[in-house]
Amino acid sequence: MESLIRGNVLSHVPNGKQFCFPFVTGHWTSHSLGKQVLVAEPSVVPGRLCRDRPMDPVRVAVVGAGVMGLSTALCISKLVPGCSITVISDKFSPETTSDVAAGILIPHVYPDTPTHKQKQWFRETFDHLWAIANSADAREAAVHLVSGWQVYRSISTEVPFWADVVLGFRKMTEAELKKFPQHVFGHAFTTLKLEGSAYLPWLEKRVKESGAVTLTRRIEDLWELQPSFDIVVNCTGLGSRQLVGDLEIYPVKGQLLKVQAPWVKHFIRDGSGLTYIFPGVSNVILGGSRQSGDWNLTPDAEISRDILSRCCALEPSLHGAWDIKETVGLRPYRAGVRLQKELLARDGRRLPVVHHYGHGSGGFSMHWGTALEAARLLNECVQALRTPAPKPKI
Ligand SMILES: Cc1cc2nc3c(=O)[nH]c(=O)nc-3n(C[C@H](O)[C@H](O)[C@H](O)COP(=O)(O)OP(=O)(O)OC[C@H]3O[C@@H](n4cnc5c(N)ncnc54)[C@H](O)[C@@H]3O)c2cc1C
Known about the structure:
Structural class: alpha+beta
Strand content: 25-35%
Radius of gyration: 23 Å
Bound molecules: flavin-adenine dinucleotide
Number of strands: 20
CATH architecture of the domain at 2-97 and 197-248 and 336-386: 3-Layer(aba) Sandwich
Distance between the termini: 49 Å
Order of helices and strands: EEEEEHEHEHHHEEHEHEEHEEEEEHEEEH
Number of helices: 10
Helix content: 25-40%
Largest sheet: 9 strands, mixed
CATH superfamily of the domain at 2-97 and 197-248 and 336-386: NAD(P)-binding Rossmann-like Domain
Shape: elongated
């Protein structure tokens, strides 16, 4: 079965979905693996298209619709004029890892990334979300300020790099520490929290308002997107292990409980990061667990009991929590976020790719900063496409 796609029209694709594919002329057809692929008309040749007609929109495919894919698509629409953007993903909210996250802004450290760069990403993300928290969109996006404590079993002189980005960072007082008889030291501060299952639809709505379109589809090989797109942004998180063969990325399974305990208003996090209580708009998140290399998405009842017992030790009032729901996600771990341009080439044809994935435990804390950087890398690719090839000297 083939479906014709022309210009800015709504078309039916073989999986029955309707979508708008702007500025593309082509058709869906089957390839040898039984998949449907988009084949552009011969007139659409990347590179040539832009050099011959410099004002044509540059066709950008963003693969992945977790927090990275959606925020990158939005940053591109704001920062890089003249692009038509299509977000392609096999899963959208509420089925991504980003929907599972606890959603607190407390950075995790990337050993391979300079601290000043991590601080810049965190500050940009904090400022972006704080603006939402201060706006009428706060309720819809489920973004809000939250104050609380990070507590330690030994005294630490280390000041985290993000201490002057969050609000009111200070050492806990003796009076505050009385609440935590197992702990001897702690920091108090105010940060931001969001709920992925609300923030992702909020982002997706803005992405669509910017003129971008979305398409539900699994990509087996980025080259499938050539020649229908001029540039691809890879935001597939853990999917990059298979999609681009990156063996540096691996899963760290995390289990959480979502409970009702509306009297809990302060966050509490053990300094090790393993046990935490994060109150949000619609529930309180209790965590957590870390199982490196585990791909199993089934919740473990024993781990749930352990999480509840550890959280009740920190906040005894949680014995009265109700409506306890278990949830599991796979953190896309890597020593450093991959933010990088790559030029794929086959048979004399080229496809520029911007990689943006590998945020591990800290994706929400960094997403807007890294998405801005991905948009800057994409802008460099766009400028290169728009630069006319030098004319040969006669
Ligand atoms: C239990 C848990 C708690 C967490 N808590 C926090 C927290 O409190 N604070 C924080 O900052 N971070 C937290 N994180 C981390 C955060 O959730 C991740 O870093 C972030 O969600 C990663 O986003 P992503 O968009 O890269 O990946 P994902 O959300 O996994 O999105 C990847 C997208 O790519 C698509 N995709 C993959 N492969 C393909 C393919 N071949 N073809 C088409 N589409 C494809 C997927 O369908 C999906 O849409 C937590 C994570 C977990 C699991």
